[in-house]
From TrEMBL:
It is a multi-pass membrane protein. This is sn-1-specific diacylglycerol lipase. Its cofactor is Ca(2+). It is an enzyme of class 3 (hydrolase). PANTHER family: DIACYLGLYCEROL LIPASE HOMOLOG-RELATED, DIACYLGLYCEROL LIPASE-ALPHA. It catalyses: a 1,2-diacyl-sn-glycerol + H2O = a 2-acylglycerol + a fatty acid + H(+). GO terms for biological process: arachidonate metabolic process; diacylglycerol catabolic process. Keywords: Calcium, Cell membrane, Hydrolase, Lipid degradation, Lipid metabolism, Membrane, Metal-binding, Phosphoprotein, Transmembrane, Transmembrane helix. Its EC number is 3.1.1.116. The lineage of its organism: Eukaryota, Fungi, Fungi incertae sedis, Mucoromycota, Glomeromycotina. It holds the Pfam family Lipase_3. It is found in: Cell membrane. Residues 50-181 form the Fungal lipase-type domain. GO terms for molecular function: lipase activity; metal ion binding.
Length: 290
């Protein structure tokens, strides 16, 4: 049988929510810069949860593509992300405030993945601006983001308030946290340079092994130079960043054979370490991990 509003009912059943716990349900939106999201009350943590979906359809891709920078709070942000965040706050703030009062909530938790994580960051900053009275009452407003796409200037990304209210988790080689217009332009220049080096006559007399070594060194030097002298404005991940990667540790040695264990390591990182796009075979798989 086909159920009407099956997504909504699935969420209610999975999280054991009552009808009144669904505060806003804004899925199925297909307009540019109009996010798909839900606002729910979580009885277990006494929190209001704002969950924002990432890129899933053509209009989301267009929002991603609105990569022009817009001045905001003394810096600049991704235009499409800012418009999406403003839409959410404008259309749902009243309901969020009423829910906080009704359920006597202790926190507002904003959650997103990919494009949704970028929107989550700006939504959190907007809410903290417009809900100072709630913060004064001891209600925490915090973002928990996964695979966040770069969305603001470095000065905004590194503000103490931003770092205190936004936590991001980046999975190893995931390309999305490194993907902004400025980074793409640098990557394009790097590809053009690599193509020209492959045709460079100065390597003609070298063996294949030496030629490859020289070209790779040249490309690496050019990448370093490009990174330090690039004229393109970059966008960064706002807030505190936690970098997840696989680490190998030797556990013991038995009969001269070393045994290793593979663990996930979580380390605190910095926004400026995610401005370099490198080709990795798993850069998309790490965006959607198993």
């Amino acid at each position: 049988a086909i159920r009407i509003n099956s997504d909504r009912k699935a969420v209610q059943e999975f999280f054991s929510l009552e009808n009144e716990d669904i505060i806003c349900w804004e899925y199925g939106q297909k307009a540019v810069s109009v996010p798909n999201y839900m606002v729910i009350h979580d009885p277990e943590t006494k929190s209001i949860i704002i969950s924002i979906r990432g890129t899933m359809n053509v209009t989301d891709v267009i929002t991603d593509a609105l990569a022009h920078h817009e001045p905001w709070n003394g810096g600049f942000v991704h235009r499409g992300v800012l418009r999406s965040a403003k839409y959410l706050v404008k259309h749902s703030l009243k309901n969020i405030r009423e829910a906080v009062k009704k359920f006597e909530s202790k926190a507002i938790q904003v959650i997103g993945h990919s494009l949704g994580a970028s929107v989550s960051s700006i939504v959190t900053l907007l809410l903290r601006e417009q809900c100072r009275d709630l913060i004064t009452q001891g209600i925490d407003i915090h973002a928990w983001n996964f695979a966040t796409a770069p969305c603001c200037s470095l000065d905004l990304a590194c503000k103490a308030e931003t770092e205190n209210c936004i936590d991001n988790f980046v999975n190893e080689n995931d390309v999305i946290p490194r993907l902004s217009y400025g980074n793409l332009m640098d990557f394009k220049e790097l590809v053009k340079f690599a193509a020209s080096e492959l045709k460079n006559e100065k390597y003609k007399k070298l063996s294949s092994k030496d030629k490859l070594s020289k070209i790779l060194t040249s490309i690496d030097d050019y990448r370093t130079c490009l990174k330090s002298n690039s004229a393109t404005q970059k966008l960064y991940i706002p807030g505190t960043i936690y970098y997840l990667y696989k680490g190998f540790y030797r556990t013991h040695v038995n009969s001269s054979v070393a045994y290793y264990t593979k663990d996930i390591v979580c380390e605190k990182s910095k926004p400026d370490l995610f401005t370099d796009i490198s080709l990795r075979r798993n850069w998309l798989f790490h965006h959607f991990p198993d």
